[in-house]
From TrEMBL:
<dbReference type="InterPro" id="IPR014782">
    <property type="entry name" value="Peptidase_M1_dom"/>
</dbReference>
<dbReference type="Pfam" id="PF11940">
    <property type="entry name" value="DUF3458"/>
</dbReference>
<dbReference type="GO" id="GO:0008237">
    <property type="term" value="F:metallopeptidase activity"/>
</dbReference>
<dbReference type="InterPro" id="IPR042097">
    <property type="entry name" value="Aminopeptidase_N-like_N_sf"/>
</dbReference>
<dbReference type="InterPro" id="IPR024601">
    <property type="entry name" value="Peptidase_M1_pepN_C"/>
</dbReference>
<feature type="domain" description="Peptidase M1 membrane alanine aminopeptidase">
    <location>
        <begin position="227"/>
        <end position="450"/>
    </location>
</feature>
<dbReference type="GO" id="GO:0008270">
    <property type="term" value="F:zinc ion binding"/>
</dbReference>
<dbReference type="InterPro" id="IPR045357">
    <property type="entry name" value="Aminopeptidase_N-like_N"/>
</dbReference>
<comment type="similarity">
    <text>Belongs to the peptidase M1 family.</text>
</comment>
<keyword id="KW-0645">Protease</keyword>
<keyword id="KW-0479">Metal-binding</keyword>
<dbReference type="Pfam" id="PF01433">
    <property type="entry name" value="Peptidase_M1"/>
</dbReference>
<keyword id="KW-0482">Metalloprotease</keyword>
<feature type="domain" description="Peptidase M1 alanyl aminopeptidase C-terminal">
    <location>
        <begin position="574"/>
        <end position="895"/>
    </location>
</feature>
<keyword id="KW-0378">Hydrolase</keyword>
<keyword id="KW-0031">Aminopeptidase</keyword>
<dbReference type="Pfam" id="PF17900">
    <property type="entry name" value="Peptidase_M1_N"/>
</dbReference>
Length: 895
């Protein structure tokens, strides 16, 4: 397989102006007619025109209406090369035959439960027709679709419907035109038996936009929340960024077979059904929140829409796929802000940072570590794979967030406006975004760009000291960027540190000025006291000395997690308890609790490994008790604050990860906490139960979250009273959030009740494939001994199907994420996953590569586990006909 490098980027030799596509959709084969107007980048040049193509049968090729002779072009398995095209502009017509029915990769044009649909990002368009399949080729498209009318009554593509009509032989057609230039990864087509929920959004300039969400008829009633989410995203983008949708129609289609969450195709978003369909009976609060976030995410892509203030359009995309974070990082940041504004900001931040710690941190320290803007790849799809996407998406969003932290809301908006003004209609780079932020604010961003080029999560150490006589408080920062594959030398990063200093009563002290680099810098600009500020740490070692600090403070560092780093501060246990009780920054309150829990867990893991008795620190119990019983706190914040760090997070901090010890310790602490806080937890369940109709809003979600975590704690006691409580909650639940939480609580404990309730749940929901997937994942993840056999048996369950990604993610992915059974010391978990990867690769390489990535951190474990996992990776790498997707991850993991 060939590796592709960022440094090798070259401008295309040819641009495409217009692309007219014709599809004759058939039951066995589909004909694709593509007519492109081509112009050379450099007038008069006639260098070969190289088109990408994959699994295509070429039927004919013409230039300016004349068929080409065999000697005029070359075709191989991946390209069609026109050897000497005419100099000057010309028309290229290509007819290809493709077989969507056989396309199980779900990339390109494929069928999902009887309907045709497409997925073109990143490189799926080349499976439809020969094309320069790269994002910097932006053209205007039309698309004519012809199909059997009774089988495919609905025919959709991007833009506006120009024409539709009947054809002979029971067929019909539709002609769509997208008036704006786009790259081919945003092309989309859908044909099938679908019905729509219709609504209208009136834009701020008074235009009516028709909104349609398409699903099979029986699912239509479950699309109300998706429609609410779409309208909320449209309104939010107008209010916060001044961006107004630019077409008159916006379609969303839900399909059950989809590799990722959703795709932002211009005006025709295609979604994985699980991120559209929701009703209180079938979807949990987490599902509702995910739908809001992902509908927001897909809508908020800049290229999809945009008449910014004063009618300028703002359609910007990536120059090449290395710049993926330019669109994905920015959009994740925007969707996080959208969800924060609609719910609770601190709780959303806590959830996002937990995700970062559980996925980004391990990947940033593993064999596949790469910068936010990678330097090379074998298969582009792998940047969207499993946890690796975190480095481009989630860490990319943190980089965007740092601009906002440094510039403030208004400065950030000024940067965005300039970015649109400069780059409308262009395919650009991360430097262009950086330059817009800098220039719009006249800012000095020093070495900030290294966030795009250096891999690895920096560790920042902070040492503090107070001088009572001088009334100064010093913070000494030192930073270390870890070495990562291919990057043996690291430069210091530009790290924004948002902070406050707490006095002995827990209030923020006023901050006036600090010494830095021998200069006194004023903090408040207009003489008003300031209680929180942002320091700019740019060197390997650096000191900031705050003046006029009247008492020894406790520093609250990296408020709101102002940079994606690992912090090692010299805070004592007492300082952390103090911050947990008092910090005005709710994120840092949570963070202090997590730090205490992490330290406690690591200490107990060491005790466990040395066969010492495990004892829970009473101060920790007391700290959580005061949070649990503090009625002034947001209930969802309490739920997050009493949740222990995940096992993956703790293993990530160990020299040699020990899944058994970490699991035993986490279970011990949960059970011990449940025993000591039993009365408070029972009260929490009682006071937060409600039989009122389900509502998706923060107070109700927060109440359910708190009740259900209390229930889970109690179930860990494995006593009769708790078991009866969980069973009662299961039976009386009026919505899926409560029902599934009760089921999960019951499922912690092997035995008759568990088996009966699992069977009952399946029989209730067997006709709803999304709910059945929850049932699969609950069982896959279970820590009951020898669970691999149960999971193997579930592969043969009538509801399971290896061709459906959601089912694979639920059962096989769920198992690969299970802390105990996947890492079973006899290697049974690794063997199972190895077999599955090889089988899946033949069906769907993108899905298989997600699964193989569970092996990527094999070197973190003990020697026995290392050998067992390595053997599976070697077996996978040597499998016949392995895809590039799986090869890249497996071979880089072994390197
Ligand atoms: N921008 C989209 C990415 C995507 C994708 C990538 C590879 C293979 C399949 C895919 N489906 C969607 C969607 C997003 O970022 O949410």
């Amino acid at each position: 397989p060939k590796e592709i490098f960022l440094k090798d980027y070259k401008l295309p030799d040819y641009y495409f102006e217009t692309v007219d596509l014709g599809f004759a959709l058939g039951e066995e084969k589909t004909l694709v007619n593509s007519k492109i107007t081509v112009s050379p980048r450099v007038e008069g040049s006639s260098s070969p025109l190289v088109l990408d193509g994959h699994d295509l049968k070429l039927l004919s090729i013409k230039i300016n209406g004349n068929g080409l002779k065999d000697a005029d072009f070359q075709v191989d398995s991946r390209h069609l090369t026109i050897l000497s095209p005419p100099s000057g502009a010309f028309t290229l017509e290509i007819i290809t035959e493709i077989y969507p029915q056989k396309n199980t990769s779900l990339d390109g044009l494929y069928k999902s439960t009887g309907n045709f649909c497409t997925q073109c990002e990143a490189e799926g368009f080349r499976k439809i027709t020969f094309f320069q399949d790269r994002p910097d080729i932006m053209a205007k498209y039309t698309c004519r679709i012809e199909a059997d009318k009774s089988l495919y009554p609905v025919l959709l593509s991007n833009g506006n419907l120009l024409e539709q009509g009947e054809l002979d032989g029971g067929k019909h057609y539709a002609l769509w035109e997208d008036p704006f230039k786009k790259p081919c990864y945003l092309f989309a087509l859908v044909a099938g038996q679908l019905e729509s929920r219709d609504d209208t959004f009136v834009t701020r300039s008074g235009r009516n936009v028709q909104l349609r969400i398409w699903t099979p008829a029986e699912d239509l009633s479950k699309t109300a929340h998706a429609m609410y989410s779409l309208k909320a995203a449209m309104k939010w983008d107008e209010d916060v960024f001044g961006l107004e949708y630019d077409l008159d129609l916006f379609n969303i289609v839900a399909v059950p077979d989809f590799n990722m969450g959703a795709m932002e195709n211009k005006s025709l978003n295609i979604f994985n059904s699980k991120l559209v369909l929701a009703s209180p009976e079938t979807a949990t609060d987490a599902d509702y929140a995910a739908i809001l976030g992902v509908i927001g995410h897909e809508y908020l892509f800049i290229l999809e829409h945009g008449t910014i203030l004063n009618k300028n359009t703002c359609r910007v995309t990536c120059r090449d796929w290395f710049q993926l974070s330019l669109k994905e990082g920015l959009t994740v940041f925007r969707d996080q802000e959208f969800s924060s504004d609609l719910g609770s900001r601190p709780v959303k931040r806590i959830a996002d940072v937990s995700k970062l710690r559980n996925y980004q941190f391990p990947q940033d320290a593993g064999p596949m570590a790469h910068p936010v803007r990678p330097h090379s790849y074998i298969k582009m799809d792998n940047f969207y794979t499993g946890q690796f996407f975190c480095l481009v998406y989630e860490k990319g969003a943190e980089v965007v967030r740092m601009y906002k932290t440094l510039l403030g809301t208004q400065g950030f908006r000024k940067g965005m406006d300039l970015y649109f003004k400069r780059h409308d209609g262009q395919a650009v780079t991360c430097e262009d975004f950086f330059a817009a932020m800098r220039d719009a604010n006249g800012a000095d961003f020093a070495n900030f760009l290294s966030w795009y080029s250096q891999a690895g999560t920096p560790t920042v150490k902070v040492a503090s000291s107070y001088n009572a006589e001088a009334k100064t408080f010093s913070l000494k920062f030192s930073q270390e960027v870890p070495l990562t594959p291919g990057q043996p030398i690291k430069e210091p990063m530009f790290i924004p540190v948002a902070l406050g200093l707490l006095d002995s009563s827990g209030k923020d002290l006023p901050l006036t000025s600090f010494f830095h680099d021998g200069m006194l810098q004023s903090i408040s600009s207009n003489g008003e006291p300031v209680y929180s500020t942002v320091l700019r740490v740019t060197k390997k070692e650096e000191e900031f000395i705050f003046s006029d600090i009247t008492e020894k403070p406790v520093p609250s560092l990296f408020r709101g997690y102002s940079a994606p780093i690992r912090l090692e501060a010299d805070l004592s246990e007492a300082d952390l308890f103090f911050l947990l009780a008092h910090d005005s920054d709710e994120f840092n309150r949570w963070e202090a609790g997590q730090l205490l829990a992490r330290n406690l867990m690591l200490t107990l893991v060491a005790d466990f490994q040395q066969n010492k008795p495990l004892v829970l620190n009473p101060k920790f119990v007391q700290g959580l008790k005061s949070i649990l019983t503090d009625s002034s706190l947001d209930k969802e914040f309490i739920a997050k604050a009493i949740t222990l760090p995940g096992e993956g997070e703790i293993m990530d901090m160990m020299k040699i990860a020990d899944p058994d010890a970490v699991h035993a310790v986490r279970s011990f602490i949960r059970k011990q906490l449940a025993a000591e806080l039993r009365a408070e937890l029972l009260n929490t369940v009682k006071n937060n139960s409600s039989s009122e109709a389900y509502e998706f809003n923060h107070p109700n979600m927060a109440r359910r979250a708190l009740k259900n975590i209390a229930l889970a704690y109690l179930a860990s006691l494995q006593d009769e009273e708790s078991a009866a409580l969980a069973l009662n909650e299961y039976k009386s639940a009026t919505n899926m959030t409560d029902q599934f939480a009760a089921l999960a609580a019951i499922a912690q404990n092997p035995g008759k009740t568990r088996d009966e309730v699992l069977a009952d749940f399946y029989s209730k929901w067997q006709d709803n494939f999304l709910v059945v997937n929850k049932w699969f994942s609950l069982q896959a993840w279970a820590d009951i001994p020898g669970n691999v056999e149960n999971v193997r048996n579930l592969l043969n369950h009538p509801a399971f199907d290896l061709r459906n990604p959601n089912k694979v993610y639920a059962l096989i992915g769920g198992f690969a994420g299970s802390p105990v059974n996947f890492h079973a010391k006899d290697g049974s978990g690794y063997k199972f996953l190895g077999e599955m990867v090889v089988q899946l690769d033949k069906i769907n390489p993108q899905v298989a590569s997600r699964m193989v990535s569970a092996f990527s951190r094999w070197r973190r474990y003990d020697e026995t586990r290392q050998n067992l996992a390595k053997a599976q990776l070697e077996m996978i790498v040597s499998a016949n006909g392995l895809s590039e997707n799986v090869f890249e991850i497996a071979s880089k993991s072994l390197a």
